[in-house]
């Protein structure tokens, strides 16, 4: 009899906590940047392993960004792909391709991001997965957030 009562109390407490978090999250206003000056350089790092079906779509989306191309670089870190991920990537002249050579490490994706950061020259480091397709204003919005809020860390 006591166990069901304890479970019910914990369930109610957990539900209240989830509702509190949800309402707090919903109260955060959407960021709609108005900054149109371009001064922040951005390095986009993409760790990719066997992403031949996705990498071309992502790189096409990055080519269509409204942020000026001379203010961002794209670095793809090929993480031991056995498909044509690297060949597809090489078809995009604006992309720097790095091949991860290390074997026997604990986390290949973390190592790929680390290698990308080492090669990056941008003021901001932005990472994305190869199976994501960002909207055209993605980098422009991130740069505006940095400029307007003097942000030191942006998570989205």
Outline the structure in words.
- This protein has 156 residues and is an alpha/beta fold.
- The chain is 42% helix and 15% strand.
- The chain contains five helices and four strands.
- The chain has a four-stranded parallel beta sheet, with helices on both faces.
- Strand 2 (72-78), helix 3 and strand 3 form a beta-alpha-beta unit.
- The radius of gyration is 20 Å and the shape is extended.
- The N and C termini lie far apart (45 Å).
- The relative contact order is 0.21.
- The model has no long low-confidence stretch (mean pLDDT 92).
User: Radius of gyration in whole Å, from Cα?
Assistant: 20 Å
- Categorize the overall geometry: extended
Summarize the amount of helix as a percent range: 40-55%
What is the assembly state of the chains in this entry? single chain
Mean pLDDT: 92
Largest sheet data: 4 strands, parallel
Poorly predicted ranges: none
Summarize this structure as a short list of keywords or feature phrases.
156 residues; 15% strand
